[in-house]
Amino acid sequence: MSALYPRLFEPVAVGPVALRNRIVSSGHATRLADGQVASERFRAYHRARAAGGAGLIITEASFVTRETSYSHSQLVNVDDSIVPSLTQLTNEIHEEGAAVFGQLLHLGLEQSHSIDGLRVAAGGPSAGRAERYHSAGRALSIAEIEGIVKAFGDGAERLARSGFDGVEIAASHGYLVAQFLSPDINQRTDGYGGSFEHRLRFLREAIAEVRTRIGPALALGVRISGDEMTTDGVDAALALRVCEAIGSDGLVDYFNVPVGSSREVAGAVHIVSPMSTPMSISTPMTRRIKAVVTQPVIAVGRINQPAQAEQVLADGDADLCGMTRAMICDPAMANKAAADAPEEIRGCIACNQACIDRFHRGHGISCIQHPETGRELTYGVRVKARTPRNVMVVGGGPGGMKAAAVAAERGHRVTLYEQDRQLGGQVLLAEQLPRRSEFGGIVPNLEREMQRAGVTIQTGTAVDRALIEATQPDVLILATGATVLHSIGEVASAHTADAW
Fold it and tell me: Hey, which residues does 76 pair with through a beta bridge?
């Protein structure tokens, strides 16, 4: 038990599932599911977070119909071809002592294109458009709705057979279930639209179907945005009402509460909230939801440090904390916190440059501070150098610091030189921008990495030919910073300035 974070490392039961602590890696797309199954890269990524001490791993959404899939790098749960890889995944996560839940999703009107890149007339509760993707959709028939409900059950049954401890229905972020809930989007006049009870019917049927198929031995949860922060989606009042109604039905074991929506740009920014947004962004909603449900509630969004998560729990705002990007940045965050060593944690700065940005560019997840993320099979193990060398690193920006730390971890004798008195390079400029001060967190993170690895650090020292000849390094790494990509030349105007 941690002395610093007693609540965070207190075991908790989520329905029939006992968790070793309250740290959750919540469902998030990784672009690592090669061939729409849990590839070796996918499994290594999640195993690293389980080995790092997380209590619960919730894997990314698996699509319950083939029509809603749009990428070969995401899970598609429509037949038994996915079961062998998922079984390997759950076995590996269980070996590390964590529990694992699987998420089920249908995009509805938010499907931007088909898997071959073509536009599609996506199906939703009503015909409508998606502002963010500039796409239009059609209304699902009753038969199609019934088929999707069954597909949720089929997908859940495959998760159960694959060894998952629980199933999560994604009713968040403006996707199909949320579209049925919204009185603005759902314009149906049959039993699935109109009144609150009718709009809730689709979610209730999906929950009932899943619970029937997985039985009482697995946990069942619902992920719902506490506020989609859009003009036509699920607002805080509606989310509260939905959770109260579903909680009273007694079929679900927990609620997972993010914020934001995929439907509009204004809401989409909060799906992976950047550093310009508040910390613990979902807790105003989780606090209200906890007051009307008896099931555990998970808060997610900008919970980056164990002290912050401990405070969320101490305040009674949630029962568990999703710390997903914290573990993208430092997979061993939970173990370090459990050892009461917060100074060892590489803190996420919510820059979003290699996690969500790489996703949108079609690449696998990673982190600018921890490039091993998503590349565990390639860079996850530091191979000790057979012949240690004397390495001189010139430049104390993030590139030089990371190179120095990695070389020293591999057993080389490394000295880093920085001509200024302060390490950080251009990060020291970036952190001065409005609402970007967290960027400066890179500097102490990397400095601690170097110190732990045994790097000798020489600040206030310019490197010239004489110093290089006097030092005689075996390897010289020049990390003296970036240059301007495009120059506008000399412009004599008070209205013109370059980034520097």
Answer: 63
